[in-house]
## 1
Amino acid sequence: MGTSRNRSILEPKARSLCVRAGLCAGLALLAAGQQPAAEPPAAQVTDARIDRIDEEEPGAWLAYGRGYRQHRFSPLTQVNRDTVEDLGLVWMRRLDVRHRLQSSPIVVDGVIYYTDSWSVVSAVDADTGETIWTFDPETRRRYARWSCCGGPINRGVAVYKGRVYTATFDARLVAIDAATGQQVWDVDTADYPSRVPYTISGAPLAAAGKVFIGNSGSEWDHRGYVTAYDAETGEKEWRFFTVPGDPSKPFEHPELELAAETWNGEWWKLGGGGTVWNSITYDSDLHTVYVGVGNGTPWSREIRSPGGGDNLFLSSIVALHPDTGRMKWYYQTTPGDNWDYTATQDIVLADLVVDGIERKVVMQAPKNGFFYVLDRRDGELLRAYPYGAMNWATHVDMETGRPVENPDAVWEEKPQWMLPGNIGSHNWEPMAFDARSGLMYIPTHDVAFFFALPEDYAETGVYSPRERTMNLGVASGRYRAKLIEEAPPRPESKGFLKAFDPLTGETVWKVRNKSAQIGGVLATAGGLVFQGDGSGTFSAYDSDTGELLWDFDSYGSIIAPPVTYRIGNTQYVAVIVGAAFAYYDTGKMLVFSLGGDAELPVPPERDRAIPEQPAMSASVEELDQGGKLYHQFCASCHGYSARGYRNADLRIMSRAIHDSFQDVVRGGLLVDLGMDSFAEDLDETETELIRQYIISRANIDREAAETR
Ligand code: CA
């Protein structure tokens, strides 16, 4: 830990590593083997300081969503509608990973703190990009296999009272001294039994003297919870479970009694789901923490909770007392979740005049396609307009507060493409709110998912859970492919940036992204909205009209939200870019300012043609078995039908990997890259059948490409 790495190839002028006087003195003493004297320590971020960010620190970005209210709106105006054409790259830093990158940097006192996908934290001079320290929490790489969606993820740190907090993909919460980069404490947040290990992808929230963190992976049979730790000591203060546990045991807290009445069957055996994997928001006006709760496990509600029920607190916003963890109120966006419709999307706080009454509101665009405005004192529903394409429901009944499901879209009876799909109309990519105009800038996508019951369950009415693999409770493999062939075609996938009025439901403008994979959003008082997308384009739009004013090719894939900050007289815009499959490249952080003229090196293009494959020896039956095993153990990272996912396309793996396939799959040869050993799951013969299946898939796709 504390090693300097990832030096930028554009790292410009030499500059002192310590940008603050107190920090320099402390480092000098440390180098001399002494304890630092009572210097003013770094990053003294307090609740009050975050609350006054707009008035007192317009140039800072102190918390995940900039301030506690999660507006992702900056009052800076140097980069504006008129000047943005001069925006250019000033420096970049490499992140030594090829994964998707979702990290949202924090900028305090001239220092940027950011993470890579293994939760390695870097503190860098926000002006020059020079390394101050790097901290590697040594996340266990084998946990990548327990990812819901193709590899490790981390969304960033919290900075608070001289500490930097990072949550790791192997479910630890680590406190680091902000001045020195040394570890202060490290706690295991997964101290609750589970069928497979818990992971964490979200950024922690630090507020009210505590650090709050949830966990990820409802799909992996988890029971969701959020835990509060003492920010100073790391001591566990309370835990709120989002779904009830085994009814033969006492309720861990009183709210679960209410929740348990809304469940049926033996849901606890597969955890029930409800992970708090992204959104935790602190309300300093009302001293409340709002947590966004995830989907049910399995997805299919008739398998999860036969006999029905709303399944509280799935897909809900839950308001908790930060000191005790007791619930103040909840609002369930999707009762009886049946579509992976999480309410883990970012929760934005504002004061709005609604129907002539001044309200303190919470706003959310959860996966289900409705945009909610609730009174944050009691959870009263004020607005619920659709913001994305949908066929699962027709509207929200404002009397009952419940969505009215579309009787023509019952996928258990008639397998079909559902909109929103499982990734939702909006996912974790944060939206931005301009309180002056009242407009929310939402990254949205219309991406359908084909829902059908699993083949064996459809035939027998009995669901057989599988060990050490996801239990989605929906059709997969060849059976699903056959149903898709018989169904109307899949609706086209599209990504949009929308300027949306939460009170009228009007989309004031929208632009279509180049990719259905869309990035988080930044809005500024300069009249600009910044967003990247999966094509690697980083764009700035006029916030009034949506007119494209500036764009930049990052030669990567941008899903992380950009941030902006000011050092001296210079406004910077920073965004973390993931490596795109099209290039041999790593992740990188790009930092822009007016007049910036650094050149971004163009990475070499990857040859994506499927190479000639080794000889295939398996029979049709064996390939079928190989395919089943592949989909059980490999598809969540390497893609359905071995068509590739993110950066792990097995159809193009080298002969060397083919030759060492057993060592890789069973021997853990590539565990440092996140490829765990599957020796507990697969014997040698099964492993070879998977390889044969990959060869067969590669041959089919190679032939198709040649005849095109
Ligand atoms: Ca999910």
Note: The pocket of calcium ion is lined by residues 148, 218-219, 294-295, 340, 342 (CB under 6 Å).
## 2
Amino acid sequence: MPRTSKRPSKTRNIKSDIPTSRPVVAIVMGSQSDWETMRHASETLENFGIAHECRIISAHRSPQLAADFSSSAETNGFEVIIAAAGGAAHLAGVFAAHTTLPVLGVPMKSDALNGMDSLLSTVQMPAGIPVGTLAIGKAGATNAALFAIAILANSRPRLREQLWDFRKAQDERIRATKLP
Ligand code: RP5
């Protein structure tokens, strides 16, 4: 890391209306140990052909980098930030304090408290600085990416169409699944 991805959409054979030349979503995480979970957010964005950047940035261990990256995120072309951290998980809140871009928090499953510490410290933002918090772990990572896509799709009809196609495929898989 940093990693960037510009892979074209796999969900549908149409040209996306997302710019592929510059990352529009930043995925930041407190530690390399978060990557095994957060790669699911990255893979979901890749499947929709959304250029994004993945970085390790810690609110505690690299506080100045966290402030600098979040302060300049909008100027640098990002439209949504996904911030993942575990334990006393302040990363999403710190990012949200420095930008008005939407910040989606993903609580990591921790060894000590199974992610309840991460969840509460990400979700319980005092009024005034919002963080949209997803579920603990892999489901949260995947849904953070889908949420980011939904935000981007507000102003991008072709991306919205891709999102509907994804939902349709999911629905068809459920309908086709038979119990043994
Ligand atoms: C947080 O501390 C990270 O987001 C990670 O989830 C947790 C543990 O980090 P490591 O000790 O594995 O680097 O900052």
Note: The pocket of 5-O-phosphono-beta-D-ribofuranose is lined by residues 29-31, 33-34, 58, 85-87, 108 (CB under 6 Å).
